[in-house]
Amino acid sequence: xxxxxxxxxxxxxxxxxxxxxxxxxxxxxxxxxxxxxxxxxxxxxxxxxxxxxxxxxxxxxxxxxxxxxxxxxxxxxxxxxxxxxxxxxxxxxxxxxxxxxxxxxxxxxxxxxxxxxxxxxxxxxxxxxxxxxxxxxxxxxxxxxxxxxxxxxxxxxxxxxxxxxxxxxxxxxx
Length: 174
Hints:
The chain has helices at about 20-30, 50, 55-65, 160-170, and strands at about 10, 35-40, 40-45, 65-75, 80-85, 90-95, 100-110, 115-120, 130, 135-140, 145-150. With about 170 residues, the chain is an alpha+beta fold. The protein has a 7-stranded antiparallel beta sheet with strand order 1-9-6-11-4-3-2. Strands 5-10-7-8 form a 4-stranded antiparallel beta sheet, with no helix packed on it. Strand 2 (about 35-40) and strand 3 form a beta hairpin.
């Protein structure tokens, strides 16, 4: 029995990717793409001007300024341990690779040794509003895992998931 209410962790955005998915696939497949190490991931920064060609991000940026986006790559058999993000209160993610086994879990501690968890099962070409302040982990298995991730100018001190969720719900985006 799940003890976690998924809308408190993440919400599927109704508008599917129009341009970002294909652009990211080209970056992933290009052997000359530049990747930089960053807090446990390899990242490839996403061009800001291209980012706003995605209709949902153009609208979102008018309300909540977008800082940047990147493609995050994790190695096979890598686990990014349970955590909440230090700086990001909320972000938007989209899984880019489906040729592997990986799990994105949100969890609450039951006791000293057990956690109740809920899995975000990503759908192709689908963005998710993601609550970075709810404990989560990533477990990746047999192949590299690629994720598009967008962050806002406002950090966890001034912008949290409930505020963006409420606005997106009113705008019929989720």
